[in-house]
Design a protein that fits this description.
Length: about 110
């Protein structure tokens, strides 16, 4: 059974940081490009960041570039999203995706 489980979300003040994790099982993680998406209230789900299989090829949406860092640990079959300098507009449910499988999402709320 394929599982992707996001964690690490929460409420944080503007300028704060969070680190999201995506723990996976049931598929060949080390061969999978891992992608983070987010869905804000009333908006479509959007791509945030992507990391290649060896972790040396990363891409970011312009809205998060320079603030977010995607990483992975193939031994732990887990992907991460380090989010710094958070803004109000980063508030969303964050999802990870691998091989077109989705996790259940984790809520990130940036609020003062």
């Amino acid at each position: 059974e394929v599982q992707l489980v996001e964690s690490g979300g929460g409420m944080v003040q503007p300028g704060g940081s969070l680190r999201l994790s995506c723990a996976t099982s049931g598929f060949t993680f080390s061969r999978s490009i891992m992608t983070w998406y987010r869905e804000a209230p009333g908006k479509e789900r959007e791509w945030v960041a992507r990391i290649g299989t060896f972790g040396d090829n990363t891409n970011y949406a312009d809205s998060v570039k320079g603030r977010f860092t995607v990483s992975r640990d193939n031994a732990k079959t887990t992907a991460y999203l380090q989010m710094n300098s958070l803004k109000f507009e980063d508030t969303a449910v964050y999802y990870c995706n691998g091989q077109n499988y989705w996790g259940q999402g984790t809520q990130v709320t940036v609020s003062s």
